[in-house]
Amino acid sequence: MTPVPQIRVMLVDDHTLFRKGLAELLEQRGAIKVAGIAGNGDEAMQLLKTAAPDVVITDLNMPPHGGLALLRQMRAEGWRGPVLVLTVSDAEDDLASAMSAGAQGYLLKDMEPDDVVDAVQRAVRGETVVAPAMTLKLVHLLQGGGQAPKVDAFQHLTTREREILEYLAQGLSNKAIARHLDISHDTVKLHVRHILAKLNLTSRVEAAVLAVEQKASQNARSGSR
Questions:
Q1: Containing structural domain, residue 175
Q2: How many distinct structural domains can be found in the chain?
Q3: Which of 130, 151, 174 is the last residue of a domain?
Q4: Spatial contact of 67 and 87, defined as CB atoms under 8 Å apart
Q5: Strand locations in the chain, DSSP E?
Q6: Least confident window among 115-119, 153-157, 213-217
Q7: Total-model pTM
Q8: pLDDT in the model for residue 169
């Protein structure tokens, strides 16, 4: 059997203990290799040339210039791989700034370790990933894009899939949804894949946006009667 290629991750954080702990956590998963660790943006830009990461995970607030400055510099110098911001800040303004600067994900440092690993794997597949607690805030930011709900596509969802989609719109993680519905975590993951396929979407964030817009559309129609 051909071995699955490891995902190469570069970590950027000014707190030594945290970045070492995160490196150990990620390395415990056989599918992830920590290709480099940096304590600030300057170190990261030097390391980027030799580490050849598939994904960069950076803190938001760190001296001297911060994660957003690093992200903008990486993009300006042509690096197009996924960058995930990992921070303690759950402020919507920080989320908006990170996504505008070119981040592919926004994660919180109090997330479950397995959810961080899952986010890295999804980012490599091209998905936009955010901490479950930030989903509604991202939905709020994205609603200004004027994306039209796929009404016909929603009609193809099963009752269970509609339940799970509602929980996604509320920002719940797969584990939390599993607890609410008293089903396994793997069953929730399977349902989410089916939902994305039926709605022709690539990420749970897009599904959450559509669910919120669909609900708003239904409320508007009900109010006009």
A1: 141-223
A2: 2
A3: 130
A4: yes
A5: 7-12, 32-38, 55-58, 83-87, 105-108, 129-130
A6: 213-217
A7: 0.72
A8: 82
Residue carrying the six token digits 């975590």? 185
Alpha-carbon gap, residue 32 to 108, rounded angstroms: 19
First vs last C-alpha separation in the chain? 61
Question: Contact 83/104 with Cβ under 8 angstroms?
Answer: yes
Alpha carbons 141 and 145: distance in angstroms, whole number: 8
pLDDT for 2 beyond 90 = no
* Residue 2 domain flag: no
- Ramachandran angles phi, psi of 147, nearest 5°: -70, 130
- The mean pLDDT value of the chain amounts to 85
Tokens coding 92 = 């919507």
Does residue 191 share a domain with residue 101?
Answer: no
Q: What is the CATH number of the domain that holds 118?
A: 3.40.50.2300
Residue type, 100: S
Tokens of 116: 């961080």
For the purposes of burial, counting CB atoms within 10 Å of the CB of 165, is it exposed (0-12), middle (13-18) or buried (19 or more)? buried
Specify the residue for token string 């290799």.
33
DSSP secondary structure string for all residues of 105-166 = EEEETTS-HHHHHHHHHHHHTT--EE-GGGHHHHHHHHGGG-PPP-HHHHTTS-HHHHHHHH
Query: How many C-beta atoms surround the C-beta of residue 9 within 10 A?
Result: 26
Distance in angstroms (rounded) separating the CA atoms of residues 48 and 111: 26
